[in-house]
Write a structure and sequence with these properties.
Blueprint: E1 17-25, E2 30-35, E3 46-51, E4 58-66, E5 70-80, H1 106-125, E6 146-147, E7 150-151, E8 162-165, E9 173-175, H2 184-202, E10 210-211, E11 214-217, E12 220-222, E13 228-236, E14 239-246, H3 258-270, E15 276-280, H4 286-291, E16 297-302, H5 305-317, E17 323-327, E18 344-348, H6 357-366, E19 370-375, H7 378-390, E20 394-401, E21 411-417
Helix pairs in contact: 1-7
């Protein structure tokens, strides 16, 4: 890692090596420890975050960045290893930034992710609520049905790297001939595509870098962003939906955990006693259609018109007549529904940035009896939780799902409800 011209050398000089004990993992997947500096904060120590270091370890690390109240460092040596440390499956682990936990036993990964959800809830929302054990993926490896490696054209005489960003870098790409968390059909196609890209680069046919796409639909791998794909998606015991969407569109990328995940969302919404369901941010209709049999009527809303068109086609293809879909701004979805909030459950699955204020204002005015909040970023989910609490909602179940084994990411489902006397629009 190259030194920046404006490197802040306090409290450590560039590439200063420090020795410290790792006490916890951050929600970014970094090992965290403290180094005594002296002065007024001597007892507490200065926070240093070290990628790929595990709780319980004594490590030597090399500082590459100082922030206002903590430093970042690269792992140099594990002096005393955690009993939960294991050899990573991928030879690129530690260089490729795609995975953070391949060196940690899978059961421990699940335990730490559960702990991190509880800590975020306490620190960001002020709540101490029981978090259910994380539901793990049936496949800890070979589960990912979509990857998007990329490449930049190298300087003359340099080898072309096709893969993912190097750990700690925003620009440098690590060459990845095989991804251990991707499905086997993707890895087979990846090998072919890498050869084709290198051949074209050698012929001078490429003028700039690009992002590649590989999506596995039942063993058939699509590589064109605009291609239509169709997947047989299991959504519960003996239940399968046939869903079409564009290869580039958002879709849950771990099909092996989808039956448990979709079934849980459906049961949480149904257990509220609601007769109707609204699925905001519905995409091509996965959760709406998986839940339709439990409700009199389901309405899905999505800002992408192409996704809504797919959702309508998917409803027809699966013979689901009680679900309708609308393209529009999610902040205006509750007017004209034709059914009251007191009889409605709402499923929300926003992008990583969470819900915007306009949407939450509309939601709280509609006052659904229950909300099932699905999030791929518990930090923004906990930020939004403060608004739900202020609007009179109470937190019920908190259930994390590990859709992304070997990485710091997880999916968290929080069920919120109003009291019996506090439902319906005001």
């Amino acid at each position: 890692m190259s030194k920046k011209k404006t490197f802040n050398d306090r409290p450590f000089s560039y590439h200063k090596e420090v020795e410290l004990s790792i006490t916890t993992l951050t929600n970014l997947g970094l090992g965290l420890g403290r180094v005594a500096l002296g002065g007024p904060d001597a007892e507490r120590g200065w926070v240093v975050m070290v990628a790929f270091a595990l709780p319980g370890e004594r490590v030597r690390a090399r500082v590459f960045r100082n922030h206002a109240n903590y430093s970042e460092a690269d792992l140099v040596e594990v002096i005393s290893a955690s009993p939960h440390r294991i050899p990573p499956r991928c030879p690129l682990f530690g260089r490729c930034g795609g995975c953070q936990y391949q060196n940690l036993r899978y059961e421990e990964q699940l335990g730490w992710k559960r702990r991190q959800v509880g800590e975020l809830m306490e620190h960001m929302a002020g709540l101490k609520v029981a978090v259910a054990p994380v539901i793990g993926s049936p496949r800890p490896f070979g589960y990912r049905s979509k990857i998007t490696p990329h490449f930049n054209l190298p300087a003359p005489g340099r080898e072309l790297s096709i893969g993912f960003l190097r750990q700690g870098s925003r620009t440098e790409v690590v060459d990845v001939p095989r991804c251990e968390i991707a499905t086997e059909p993707i890895n087979a196609r990846l090998s072919e595509a890498r050869e084709a890209v290198r051949r074209r680069a050698g012929e001078g046919a490429l003028t700039r870098g690009a992002t590649l796409l590989f999506r596995d639909s039942g063993g058939i791998v699509t590589t064109r962003h605009e291609d239509r794909v169709v997947e047989e998606v299991p959504v519960g015991p003996g239940e399968t939906l046939r869903l079409g969407f564009l290869a580039r569109d958002f879709f849950q990328n771990n099909p092996f955990i989808l039956p448990a995940f979709a079934g849980y969302v459906r049961e949480q919404a149904r257990s509220s006693g609601a007769r109707f369901l609204v699925d905001a941010y519905c995409g091509s209709g996965l959760l709406a259609l998986a839940s339709a049999g439990a409700f009199e009527r389901v309405v899905g809303v999505e800002v992408s018109e192409s996704s809504v068109a797919f959702a309508r086609d998917n409803a027809a293809a699966n013979g689901i007549a009680n679900a309708s879909f609308t393209a529009g701004d999610a902040s205006a979805i509750f007017s004209g529904l034709g059914f009251p909030g007191r009889d409605t459950a709402v499923v929300i699955d926003p992008p990583r940035k969470g819900c915007d204020g306009a949407f939450l204002g509309q939601l709280f005015a509609f006052r659904p009896r229950a909300v099932v909040y699905v999030s791929c970023d518990p930090a923004t989910q906990m930020r939004d939780l403060a608004g739900f609490l202020a609007a009179g909602y109470a937190v019920g179940a908190v259930q994390p799902f590990d859709l992304f084994p070997q990485t710091r990411h997880l999916e968290c489902v929080i069920t919120l409800s109003l009291g019996a006397g506090d439902t319906g629009a005001r």
